[in-house]
Amino acid sequence: MNIRRWVQAGDYYLFYYVNQRLQCSFLDRVMPFFTILGSAAFALFFSLATAILGREQARAAGWQAFFALTGSHLMVRLFKNWVGRCRPYLALPGARYLARPWQDYSFPSGHTAASFSLAIIFALNFPALTLPLVALAGLTGISRMYVGMHYPTDVLGGATMGALFAYIVHSWPW
């Protein structure tokens, strides 16, 4: 088995595990909430509200988050169009979806990129918050599989992109 098929088999297995085997009424209500935490609207609102209303260190973190979100979002758009991967609920038999169907491409997860951009920027600025922030970002990624919108590699790609842009922006000489 070549590496591509091996990754694809693992991707499908993990997707079905999260999307179907973990299915329960509690998670059906909770996971869409975690998905919202990665939405562009929430991420931009949170970063700009922090940048405008926060105190000195929070204000700086808010602006950093805004720039990390902007960079990661542009890169997500570029990769989605370049890779052109179909969303799992459109490609896999029996995949269920709980969110509004999207017609754009799957790789990478923009919600996960946004949540990791925020989490890593604020973790770098407020290290005591690292664990809860990264846990919330991780739950956002898992929620994207649970609601049927992304494969695990989409989530991993989005998390990597968001974290990378957060590190770049944070280390930029302001």
UniProtKB/TrEMBL annotation:
SMART domains: acidPPc
Residue stretches making up the Phosphatidic acid phosphatase type 2/haloperoxidase domain: 60-170
Main subcellular location: membrane
GO molecular function: undecaprenyl-diphosphatase activity
Lineage: superkingdom: Bacteria
Localisation: Cell membrane
Keyword Cell membrane attached: yes
PANTHER family in the record: DECAPRENYLPHOSPHORYL-5-PHOSPHORIBOSE PHOSPHATASE RV3807C-RELATED (PTHR14969:SF62), SPHINGOSINE-1-PHOSPHATE PHOSPHOHYDROLASE (PTHR14969)
The protein's name in its UniProt record: Undecaprenyl-diphosphatase BcrC
Source organism: Neomoorella thermoacetica (Clostridium thermoaceticum)
